[in-house]
Automatic annotation (TrEMBL):
It comes from Companilactobacillus nuruki. Keywords: Membrane, Transmembrane, Transmembrane helix. Gene3D superfamilies: 3.10.450.310. Residues 10-435 form the Regulatory protein YycH domain. This is Regulatory protein YycH domain-containing protein. The chain crosses the membrane at residues 6-27. CDD domains: YycH_N.
């Protein structure tokens, strides 16, 4: 018995020592470890050049309407929207035709259609861009009709069409489809492990996703990574950096390469700005606009698997990318998202942060239960904001750095509201929590 007890004690000591060693390596050399779980993509962590453009520029929300209700769905193990895109690559999609425009009543009826699946982009793209992303020749040559929703009927076999819808002007396009089946998509819907009841409402500033009931979402913690300034100058100046002129002022470092390129790195905020005065060619098509933006982000970040196009302003030639977790955007990382790119005749400008999500780590925080969207609007009205003041509203993750470990960030779900052109969490607008009591 004493010998047996001694063996058990030795095994426990070995287990404790092994745990300590593994923890040490995780915290001191995160590059050795891959993602322990799939947060926003279906594959394991891959080389940035293996992340295709149709993953970075893809729908971020999937809404399924069964015979009664609408549901926002997500699968942590298999990204539903990316999987549907792969299915659509085998479809023969004909040229879209305009069905309706600026007709709010028709538009609301369409986006509330039963037995449909909707894939929603956070910003509008063109039919030609969709053709490129799906490698569909019929759509590649299409004119620049814009949309941000793709609707697919899952039950009506007589409706052999997909619908492209634009929240900005209520335009609806219908495209006939051949070689298509809804069965693979229905299977994906049934695998969803996040299922939140929602209702799509038309308001003054567009279509809003209302969460009908209080929702419960996980809190995440991530190890974050960054680079030395020298790694950025080597990648961005793509020439002999011996000619760099460096200056520093209160923690803000400026690197000039002649009068052609400049990198400003603020070590206080870890925000960087790169200006390339030689890049004066403005994209002539919206597809070229997105292609060049995509190329720039994979040159900036080691990992873009969680990065998604968030806003594309074709008129201003301005692109914003954000990181996503479980289909929800991350806010408060900066005032401009994760990466912002602007093209002009004077050159291109790239704003970005030296903070990138790398490895998820166990979080000891409980899941967060948020109020229904109706309750959120009531709270805003109580402090003087009418529904017409709200330009946008989203459930997202708030970026919060840990005070005792600068290499770890906590991501906590909350409501984010845009009023007067500014995004703020609900509690900053109202001085009350978005959490359900």
């Amino acid at each position: 018995m004493k010998f047996s007890r001694l063996i058990v004690q030795l095994l426990l000591v070995v287990a404790v020592i092994t745990s300590i060693v593994l923890s040490f390596f995780i915290w001191t050399n995160t590059a050795r470890y891959q993602r322990g779980q799939n947060i926003d993509v279906s594959s394991t962590e891959a080389n940035k050049n293996e992340i295709p453009m149709n993953q970075v520029i893809s729908p971020t929300s999937v809404i399924w309407h069964d015979s009664t209700d609408q549901h926002l769905i997500y699968n942590s193990n298999e990204n539903i929207s990316i999987s549907i895109q792969k299915i659509m690559q085998d479809w023969k999609i004909n040229s879209p035709k305009l069905v309706s425009k600026k007709n709010g009543a028709y538009y609301q009826k369409l986006i509330q259609s039963k037995d449909t699946i909707q894939m929603v982009y956070p910003t509008a793209i063109t039919t030609g861009t969709l053709g490129y992303l799906l490698d569909n020749n019929s759509l590649k040559n299409e004119k620049s009709d814009q949309f941000n929703r793709i609707l697919i009927n899952l039950k009506n076999k007589n409706d052999q069409n997909i619908y492209l819808a634009n929240d900005n002007n209520y335009a609806v396009y219908k495209a006939k489809v051949k070689n298509a089946s809804s069965e693979p998509i229905t299977k994906l819907v049934k695998k969803a492990n996040i299922n939140l009841r929602v209702r799509l409402n038309l308001m003054k500033h567009g279509v809003f996703t209302f969460y009908v009931d209080p929702i419960k979402l996980k809190t995440y913690s991530y190890v974050i990574s960054g680079k030395q300034d020298g790694e950025y100058t080597t990648a961005l100046f793509d020439s002999n950096t011996n000619g760099l002129v460096t200056s520093e002022d209160n923690g803000v470092y400026t690197y000039n390469y002649g009068e052609s390129k400049r990198l400003v790195s603020d070590h206080n905020t870890e925000e960087l700005t790169f200006e390339d005065y030689t890049d004066t060619s403005v994209p002539k098509t919206q597809l070229a606009f997105l292609q060049r933006g995509y190329q720039k982000i994979i040159n900036l970040q080691n990992s873009v698997s969680n990065l998604r196009l968030y806003n594309a302003n074709w008129k201003e030639k301005d692109l914003v990318f954000r990181e996503y977790v479980e289909g929800f955007p991350i806010f408060k990382k900066s005032q401009f998202g994760s990466i912002r790119i602007k093209f002009s005749r004077k050159g291109s400008t790239e704003h970005f942060l030296n903070k990138v999500l790398e490895v998820p780590v166990p979080s000891d925080q409980a899941s967060t239960r948020l109020k229904s969207t109706t309750e959120i609007f009531k709270g805003l009205q109580n402090v003087g904001y009418s529904p017409n003041d709200v330009q946008a509203l989203e459930v997202g993750y708030q970026w919060e750095s840990e005070t005792d470990n600068e290499k770890v960030v906590d991501l906590k779900p909350t409501y984010y509201i845009k009023i007067d052109g500014h995004w703020k969490p609900y509690d900053e607008w109202t001085n009350e929590s978005a959490e359900e009591e």
